[in-house]
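Hey, sorry to bother you again with one of my protein questions. I've been staring at a protein lately and its backbone has me curious. I owe you a coffee for this, so here goes:
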Amino acid sequence: MKFAFIFSGSPDPLINNRIEMVNGQYDTYFIYLNRTNEVNFEVIHQDINNIEIPVKGNYKDPIRRLLPTVRFALKAIKKIREIKPEVVYAANIDMLFITRLALLGKIKNTTIIYEVADLHRLIVDKPHGFSESMVHNILIFLERRLCRKIGLLVLTSEKFYDVYFHKFVPKGKVLFIPNMPKLSAYSGYKHKSGGKFTVGFIGLVRYKQQMKMLLNVATICNINILFAGAALDDEIQELCENEPYVEYYGKYDYDAEISTLYGKLDCVYSVYDADLNNVKVALPNKLYEAIYCGLPIIVAKGTYLAELVEEMGVGVTVSHTDENELADALNKLSQDKNYYQSIVKNCEIHRCEIKTSYYNDILLNRIMGLR
């Protein structure tokens, strides 16, 4: 049986995890967009059918990305129709739309799996201006129509269903699969011992106000900072230049480097803009990575993530706009060893809950049950 993934960019840890889950069970295809105006990337799964579709364009502006998305869509539709897969795994609404167009009147009895790792801001946040209002209404209308034909909706946060999808997707079609790390990538991980207290942000460098907050309090708290991950632009990198207390690592190879990067840290920084509705309900993979590595995580108050962090005692919650609160939290973590170790111990208690293969089996069994 043929299983096709369709993805709008370089394969991230989540999509790589899903590919590994089905590879060997199905004849696996990966249709992906290579945004050729960005740094090229290599697909790590050489034993599957990789179908690269390179398209140049502006992908940072939701409006201006429309044209390159159309170009990608036309080519992706053709590929899906050539493959005739029994299952298509679409990540995010644009890929679901392309999948539905490809199958429309051409391929019968194909099961669609729709995964949502983040709620789009143009859907869940209040629109500003006429153009955003129009896009907001179109996206909601479109997603409701498209979800009528899916076999399974996979969510990385249970709150996504509570705040949005409950309006139009039956609960029986929904599966919560947390975005947990690929544990084999952490086989060489060693907890940092000694040296200056280091706080790290690992992942896509965005939410600039919150990144600047961390930079602003670093010298006050006498700590080091590590930024590792791709960025939408160079602003944060430029702020880090010539600052001896900051290491700006840039893009990294998850499988080869993630354990080394976390081994440089005493604490994980995961404070996002909590004024955004998606941030309020999302569960980033950094929660599970921090727990697995035994590192306290700092997150924004007023979020579902903060609720879980406080409930498990695996980190600290701070205002996403208050530098004083962040400074107080960092000072306590770096200076109060008993406090720090109590959080590390709680991480160790919950470490057994990081079971990627367990959740993969649940998802795979659910997918097989649809056929």
